[in-house]
Design brief:
alpha/beta
């Protein structure tokens, strides 16, 4: 496996990172567009702006490491290997979706790509991941499990209990806190009594680190280092990614709890895709024109996948759906 420094200097590796972020960005913007047009029902939680975490975490893990995303998990699923078409079908409740249309936006599972599935229960991924990591340890497998949770979920009892068990049992779980500053509409500073959630790892004897979650290379480097520690030492590690979501908590959120100036500053001065593009331009890996061409190409691929998914009319039968309720 290439070292981080080798990957950082490899054009193909950096293009993969950039493509992953662009795919996540355009996919979620298209999802937002379709929800607002009433083409998809229910609700959705988008991570537009958090693409450095989507690409950096999954690409920092090994292919056979597992992830347990949250309700804001589209980008992580895509980065781990799901296709836009497959995910669009799932959002349309089509039979060709990854869960045959039964999971929707918040309950997407993709075992083929080591994705154990997201959950709408805030913080539920942590105890799930701890249990899976415990099983991997018992089986003698050298893999880690990445569990995602937000700043709001960091106060959940099951997250703290999961951290406690992870430390007591010495299991290879990578605890990924995506701190996007707001738990729904509440600023983290009003609910979390410490500036860095990562310091909570100390109370459980868990190594921890704060990472710039708007810098994909910083994310990838931290994940490569932390996941290797998890695998080799068979112990948990806590990473806190300081990131930002450009859109609301869910589709109905008008973001009245923060200023437009704050949003524009993050987009103009901290955007993860722009930072990665500029890095690659500085390294002579890509030109502005090539970036724009790549951006348009991926946007079209997302549009085509969405249009193709719209044409699928088959839905799962009640009889088949019932087969997934109880095991034989």
């Amino acid at each position: 496996m290439m070292t981080f420094e080798e990957r950082k200097k490899d054009k193909n590796e950096m293009l993969k990172v950039l493509k992953t972020m662009l795919t996540s960005r355009h996919f979620e913007l298209k999802v937002n567009e379709m929800f607002m047009a009433g083409l998809i029902h229910g609700t959705t939680h988008l991570g537009v702006g958090e693409e450095a975490c989507h690409a950096g975490i999954s690409l920092g893990l090994k292919e056979d490491d597992w992830i347990v995303p949250t309700h804001r998990g589209h980008g992580h699923c895509l980065a781990k290997g799901a296709t836009p078409y497959n995910m669009f079908c799932e959002l349309f409740a089509n039979y060709e979706g990854g869960c045959k249309g039964l999971g929707g936006s918040m309950h997407y599972i993709d075992l083929e790509h080591c994705n154990l599935g997201s959950s709408a229960i805030v913080g539920a991924g942590v105890p799930t991941a701890v249990g899976v990591a415990f099983a991997l340890k018992k089986q003698g497998k050298k893999n880690c499990v990445a569990a995602f949770f937000g700043d709001g979920a960091s106060n959940q009892g099951m997250v703290l209990e999961g951290m406690n068990l992870a430390s007591i049992w010495d299991v290879p779980v990578l605890l990924c806190c995506e701190n996007n500053r707001y738990g729904m509409s509440t600023p983290a500073k009003f609910t979390v009594p410490v500036e860095d959630i990562a310091v909570r790892g100390e109370g459980f004897n868990i190594k921890s680190k704060v990472v710039d979650g708007m810098d994909v290379l910083a994310v990838m480097e931290a994940v490569m280092e932390a996941s290797e520690y998890c695998r080799e030492e068979c112990k948990p590690y806590l990473l806190e990614f300081k990131t930002y979501r450009y859109l609301g908590h869910s589709k109905s959120d008008q973001r009245k709890y923060r200023t437009k100036d704050e949003e524009e500053d993050m987009k103009k001065n901290h955007d993860a895709i722009e930072r990665q593009k500029n890095y690659m331009i500085d390294q002579g890996m890509i030109t502005q024109e090539e970036f724009e061409e790549l951006d348009k190409k991926i946007e079209k691929e997302i549009e085509d996948a969405a249009e193709q998914a719209k044409k699928v009319s088959k839905i799962i039968s009640v009889e088949e759906a019932m087969n997934y309720v109880y095991a034989e």
